């Protein structure tokens, strides 16, 4: 593996077990956890989170079974899922990442989003898929907002939470990665290196590993995601709002072995009209302003037109 290493030695694994997060807000235990979450986001831009109480294992299993049925649909059915917005259609067979197929779904937590998507894919109905998607997206969104609240409280900016939450919408993505061909059985590119552009991402996967992160020291490391854990990523929108205090980590997927990887992600992001502006509390002598106020939707359009990895600095850097 040369320069690469396993990230499980370095990446924090946090545990919200026994309903810590839901039941103990405001306690010393809750405050200590907030600090751990913030520190992980500052130092790594991501962390592993054990969620056996928040997202039951049987729901995760149902979700993967539902996704297998989705990706097994005929190509012409999958291609019915289209959108003028980038990353919101069915995509597959890209020459750059031929192992990858994905579906993006806008406003995934709206009441009828799961129903509308299910109806498009299975006009005759598929209640098991619809139910799994509905409960999973709402649990992932709830978790996403809890983590946002924890980060804000840890910075002493808890009073910003309500307006953040009101200004937040979501997108969802289903991803499948085929096993690499025998000619390229080790380390075939599954997903290109990128930072997430949104606020916070919660990523779940089946038991096929492949996720890698680029550390601040410039080393690619594999992340071994435990069965009951999800990955949490800071995106560009939150990095910018925090005046660069939080890190948005570059990550990619590399496929090896003979099994298919399934993953799904819930992205929280600012609503279309929202302008991201660094709060005064983040600006001082040691932390001069790094980002001009910018509209998130315009930034996203800018990124999709050039896909440069330094898009945030180019677009909004002071
Ligand atoms: O499939 C994965 O594990 C990574 C997905 C991802 O990084 C993304 O969709 O932004
Ligand atoms: Fe990502």
Furnish the topology, listing elements before pairings:
Layout lengths: L4 E2 L6 E3 L4 H4 L4 H16 L2 E5 L6 H15 L3 H4 L11 E3 L7 E7 L6 H9 L5 H28 L6 H6 L1 E10 L10 E7 L5 E6 L5 E4 L5 E3 L6 E6 L1 H6 L9 E5 L5 E10 L4 E2 L17 E2 H11 L4 H6 L2
Helix pairs in contact: 2-6, 3-6, 5-6
This protein binds 2-oxoglutaric acid and fe (ii) ion.
2-oxoglutaric acid binds next to strand 6, strand 8, strand 12 and strand 13.
Task: Kindly estimate the percentage of residues that lie in beta strands according to DSSP.
Answer: 15-25%
First-to-last CA distance:
39 Å
Separate helix tally = 10
The stretches of 5 or more residues where confidence is low (pLDDT under 50) are: none
The percentage helix is: 25-40%
| Quantity of strands, as a count | 15
Helix-strand string: EEHHEHHEEHHHEEEEEEHEEEEHH
Main-sheet strand order equals 2-3-11-8-13-6-5-4
Bound molecules: 2-oxoglutaric acid, fe (ii) ion
Largest sheet: 8 strands, mixed
Which geometry do the CA atoms define? globular
Radius of gyration: 19 Å
Structural class: alpha+beta
Mean pLDDT: 92
């Amino acid at each position: 593996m040369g320069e690469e290493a396993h990230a499980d030695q370095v990446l924090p694994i946090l545990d919200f077990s026994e309903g810590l997060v839901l039941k103990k807000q405001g306690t010393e235990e809750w405050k200590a956890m907030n600090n751990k979450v913030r520190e992980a986001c500052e130092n790594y831009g991501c962390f592993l989170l054990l969620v056996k109480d928040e997202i039951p294992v049987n729901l995760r299993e149902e979700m993967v079974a539902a996704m297998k049925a989705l990706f097994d649909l005929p190509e012409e059915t999958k291609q019915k899922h289209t959108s003028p917005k980038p990353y919101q259609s069915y995509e597959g067979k890209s020459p750059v990442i031929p192992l990858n197929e994905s579906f993006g779904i806008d406003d995934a937590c709206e009441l009828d989003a799961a129903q509308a998507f299910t109806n498009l894919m299975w006009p005759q109905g598929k209640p098991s898929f619809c139910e799994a998607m509905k409960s999973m997206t709402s649990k992932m969104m709830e978790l996403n907002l809890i983590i946002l609240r924890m980060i804000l409280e840890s910075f002493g900016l808890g009073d910003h939470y309500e307006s953040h939450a009101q200004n937040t919408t979501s997108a969802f993505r289903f991803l499948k990665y085929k096993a690499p061909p025998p000619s390229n059985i080790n380390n075939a590119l599954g997903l290109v290196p990128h930072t997430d552009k949104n606020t916070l991402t919660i990523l779940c996967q089946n038991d096929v590993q492949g996720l890698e992160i680029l550390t601040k020291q410039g080393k690619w490391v594999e992340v071994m995601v435990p069965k009951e854990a999800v990955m949490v990523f800071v995106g560009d929108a939150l990095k910018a709002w925090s005046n660069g205090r939080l890190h948005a980590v570059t990550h990619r997927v590399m496929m090896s072995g003979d099994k298919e990887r399934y993953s799904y992600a819930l992205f929280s992001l600012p609503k279309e009209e929202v302008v991201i502006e660094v709060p005064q509390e983040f600006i001082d002598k040691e932390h001069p302003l790094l980002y001009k106020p910018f509209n998130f939707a315009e930034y996203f359009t800018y990124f999709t037109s050039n896909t440069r990895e330094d898009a945030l600095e180019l677009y909004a850097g002071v």
